[in-house]
Write a structure and sequence with these properties.
heterodimer; B: mainly alpha
């Protein structure tokens, strides 16, 4: 872990990009010509936050597989932290998505494919936390959590592709053929915001893994001292 | 909603989100510092007890 980029470096990089991204989104990218108008600019942070949530769940999925192969608790800690950060970003996705929904569709919530499958992912990853809290023995908890993280991740590609396979939904396709074709200034602003948000997600995961490893060290030292 | 109202509204939501994420990072960083202090104290205590045990063994 020490060989990786430090959390402060990632955090500074994320901060710089997010500030530039905000400036580009608010002043460089054009105001949407549709009825949404300026409210459409929510897109520049709603979609990157969603991408960061999905990426965090992806990290949890990879960590779970590596843990099941190696039984190294470092990967369990990485998976646990990634789910926590993924859920934090998911809550922000839900909040910004509801604001978007109110501005674009006139409703705070709609039971359409993308929103419903994303809500299901949130419930699944919340259940991951519940599962961890009910198993005491460390290796067994890590194994159950890893298996659950692999199963829960099945919903993530379904969420991602829901707008493509079920086009009757309200949610637009952000990037891909047939929808979301972004012009230069929009694509640049979006890309900067996206990279900034992914770096912020990486900084938070990096920092929280550090916390978990130090907590393990404290537990070991207390045990060796007899309490 | 006018452009000015929309701008204020969107910027306010953005500011709140960034404040949440930055606060989370700062709280995590303070937690790291506190835990590192704990590790340092526990390691000192471990070394002290090991030194005591060595001295007792020598006597």
């Amino acid at each position: 872990m020490k060989k990786l980029v430090s959390a402060p470096a990632l955090f500074v990089g994320a901060g710089v990009l997010l500030v530039i991204g905000a400036l580009l989104a608010f002043w460089y990218a054009p105001i949407d010509a549709s009825s949404m108008g300026f409210s459409q600019k929510i897109f520049y942070y709603h979609a990157p936050i969603a991408a960061a949530a999905i990426a965090a769940f992806g990290v949890a999925f990879v960590a779970a597989i590596v843990y099941l192969r190696t039984q190294d608790l470092l990967w369990d800690r990485l998976g646990y932290v990634s789910v926590r950060i993924g859920l934090l970003f998911s809550i922000l996705v839900m909040i910004t998505g509801m604001i978007w929904g109110k501005a674009a569709w006139g409703v705070w919530w709609a039971w359409e494919p993308r929103l419903t499958t994303f809500l299901l992912a949130c419930f699944l990853y919340a259940a991951y936390w519940v599962l961890r809290s009910v198993v005491d023995e460390e290796q067994r908890r890590a194994t159950y959590a890893a298996v659950f993280a692999v199963v829960a991740f099945v919903d993530v590609p379904i969420t991602f592709f829901a707008t493509r396979f079920l086009p009757e939904g309200l949610h637009p396709v952000v990037v891909g053929p047939g929808g979301g074709g972004m012009e230069g200034s929009v694509a640049l602003s979006f890309a900067v915001c996206l990279v900034g948000m992914l770096l912020l997600m990486a900084a938070l995961i990096r920092r929280d893994v550090e916390i978990e490893l130090i907590k393990d060290r404290v537990t070991d030292l207390k045990t060796s001292l007899g309490g | 909603m006018t452009v000015e109202e929309g701008a204020r509204y969107v910027a306010a939501v953005y500011a709140v989100i960034m404040a949440v994420l930055v606060a989370y990072y700062i709280i995590s960083s303070r937690r790291v510092s506190a835990l590192q202090r704990d590790v340092q104290l526990l390691e000192e205590e471990t070394r002290r007890r090991q030194a005591q045990a060595t001295e007792a063994g020598a006597e």
